[in-house]
Every structure is written in structure tokens, then in C-alpha cells.
Amino acid sequence: MTTVLDLIDVSKSFGALKVTDGVSLTVPKGQALGIIGPNGAGKSTLFNLITGNISPDQGRIMLLGQDVTRLPAMKRVRMGVGRSFQIPQPFEGLTVLENLLAAAVYGRGAPEAAVADDCIAILRDTEMLAKANTLAGSLSLLDRKRLELARAMATGPELLLLDEIAGGLTEGECRALIDTIRGLHAKGVTIIWIEHVLHALTSVVERLLVLDFGRVIGIGAPDDIMASKDVREIYLGMEA
After folding, report:
1. How many Å separate Cα 12 from the centre of its chain?
2. How many domains does the chain have?
3. pLDDT per residue as tens digits for the range 34-73
4. Could you give the CA distance from residue 180 to residue 196 in angstroms, rounded to a whole number?
């Protein structure tokens, strides 16, 4: 089985605070991995290390067998790392389709004519095709989340990172977004998803990783992880 991502003993500190502490992780192609942990556990820092927004103090980051530890973020995008952000920030003065074209052209380094059909297909997959010509600034929160997801897909990712994409949605909106993400995953998209909405996460992912103070305290099948005494005490705040 092809490995998309390998983290090997990755650590990062900000001053005296160690926010990522010896994290090792392998993500096979086509898998969906969820990441949970209390606030301050190091989840967003881990994403920033994978995307190249920050560099580790030690350890290696391998993407599709290539060492990308010191490569800048833009090169990693071109190699296949796509990311959505917790708070969508589309180009509000552009249409939905224009937002995707910008992501595809600059993310892939390809001319517009070469990516236009793919962008249309992505809009269809994310249920945004009917709003292709709508200005992004006028979208509802759910549609902004869908657009954020579509823009990440438009870069042509081998690995899709989702950062709390379900946050702020109603229960019905969350279910609709889950269906969209599940559909993308069913097509073979490899996903790492940070999320506090646990039922959203566990309805899609095959494995769940728990971080606490920058360290991995558990990784495995979602049911096994959520039944763990350590996870219940640290993440859920329950006395097992």
C-alpha cells in the first residue's frame, strides 16, 4: 500500500513550550484519519508542520516518499498538500468558480484552460455547481465551508487536510457537509481531519489519533479510541 505521509519523531517548540513532542505517524493512500485533543494539544501546529508553514526542530516529514521537511509551503502544495482553514476566507469579490480557478492555477501551476473542467467537476462533487457564478462574499456559512473544501480540492491534493471544517454549523448543515466529505473520501481522497464535532469525524474516518500536550496518546479504530480510559479522562474530562 502506498504511503502518502510519514512523520518521523517530529518535534516543535515555541520558546520553552513544546507543542509537538516526538510525533510519528503514517497515513496510507486512501485513508481518512481524524485528530482530536483538547485546546492547546498541538493539533493546528501539527497541520502547520505538514503544510510547511513552520519547520520542525527535529524529525522528518515525508510526502509520497520524498523528504519535504525543509520545503516551503508553496512547493508542498504543488506536490499535493491541500488544506482548508477553520475560518473560510474566500476572495469575496470573485465568484465561486473564479475562486476555484485561482486555487487551481496557482496551486497546480497550470493554465486556466487546463483546469477549468476539473474545477467544474469539483463544484459538482461539493454541491456548489448551482452557485458557480455567485459572488463568494454573499454565501451562507455552509456554502463558505463547501467553497473552502472545494478550493482545497482544486489544488489537486494527494493529501487533504481539514481543519475544524464542521465548526459553527447547525446539526442539519453538519450532516450535509459530512455527506459531501464522505463522497470525496469514497472517491479515494486521503484525508487528515481535525475536528471537535466528534460524531462528524467518526462517521467518516477509519482511524482516530489523540494528541495531548503535543504527544500522541492513542491511535486506532474510532470505537477503540473513544473507549480508552486515557482518552476519556484527558479529552472528554470524564473519570473512567
Report:
1. 20
2. 2
3. 999 988 899 999 999 999 999 999 999 999 999 999 999 9
4. 18
Segments forming the whole domain that contains residue 56: 1-80+157-240
How does pLDDT run across 85-98, given as a tens digit for each residue? 999 999 999 999 99
Whole-angstrom distance, CA of residue 225 vs CA of residue 82: 27
> Is 0.85 surpassed by the pTM of this model?
yes
Residue 177 backbone dihedrals phi, psi, to 5 degrees = -70, -40
- The answer to whether residues 161 and 76 belong to one domain is yes
- Residue spans of beta strands (DSSP E) within the chain: 3-14, 17-28, 32-36, 58-63, 66-67, 81-83, 159-163, 190-194, 207-212, 215-220
Specify the DSSP class assigned to residue 135.
B
Question: Does 165 lie in the same domain as 150?
Answer: no
What lies within 8 Å, CB to CB, of 193 at 6+ separation is 32, 33, 34, 35, 161, 162, 165, 181, 201, 204, 205
